[in-house]
Design goal:
5-stranded antiparallel beta sheet, OB fold (Dihydrolipoamide Acetyltransferase, E2P), elongated, alpha/beta, single chain, 15 strands, Rossmann fold
Length: 244
């Protein structure tokens, strides 16, 4: 059996890894620090069960779960009791509240092993959770400070968000602007049908993509319409595009 852990908080990640190693020693574990890294792992190998944190930068646990093949069972981990039930209703076989208790994890493992034996997995719905575990509201505007003024950029005019140093570049039809909001706080408010996170540092409007290529080191890059700049792209997502 192979298991995947995706958790961005190091203490919680290590606690879950140690607990699973003790309670389910025959489960081979792949440990990822965020959703993008989990996506890379999913592209390379098959997992029987995935333990996914709901709140992760780059790609939250629900989005990662929908990239898993049907035979992989999903367990969500969350620190928010009120919204754990929502995650459970979203189609996970179970959810575990943080900090994780050994007794509760034992119950989860029993459920997972029983479900693996009969081959059943519930379907995941499209629930999206924001930065505090609450259902996210869609963004309509981006507020960017320019000198002593504030510019409102309609979300429909935005082609991409690119993390750079302590700022996020907002690439839009009329140029670009800088905001302090990190990508992890933006992604939950964006329409998942229109925007896609291609890399830890990049969210793009799908229709704004012009071309993809490999650089001299074999790493995938993407260029946007009307822009003379190449951006990094996740290998796993490049594989998905090539299959379309």
């Amino acid at each position: 059996m192979r298991g995947l852990i995706a958790e961005d908080e190091a203490p919680q990640r290590e606690a879950l890894r140690v607990a699973l190693a003790e309670l389910w020693p025959t489960l081979a574990l792949e440990v990822c620090v965020d959703g993008i890294e989990a996506l890379e792992a999913i592209a390379e190998q098959r997992f029987d069960v995935a333990f996914l944190d709901i709140r992760m930068p780059g790609m939250n646990g629900l989005k990662v779960a929908r990239e898993l093949p049907p035979e992989t069972l999903v367990v969500f981990t969350t620190a928010y009791d009120e919204f754990a039930v929502r995650a459970f209703d979203a189609g996970a076989i179970d959810y575990v509240l943080k900090p994780i208790r050994s007794e509760r994890l034992q119950i989860t493992i029993a459920r997972v092993r029983e479900r693996l034996a009969n081959g059943q997995r519930p379907a995941l719905d499209t629930l999206e959770l924001g930065r505090h575990g609450r259902p996210a509201e869609r963004l309509s505007w981006i507020s960017a400070s320019i000198g002593d003024s504030v510019r409102l950029i309609p979300i429909d005019d935005v082609d991409a968000f690119h993390a750079q140093d302590k700022y996020t570049r907002v690439l839009h039809r009329s140029g670009e602007a800088l905001i302090r909001t990190p990508l992890k706080d933006l992604v939950a408010g964006l329409d998942g049908e229109a925007f896609l996170q291609l890399h830890r540092s990049l969210i793009v409007r799908i229709h704004a993509i012009s071309e993809m290529r490999k650089d001299e080191l074999g790493r995938w890059q993407v260029i946007l319409r009307n822009r003379d700049e190449w951006f990094p792209m996740s290998q796993a997502l490049a594989s998905r595009f090539r299959g379309m």
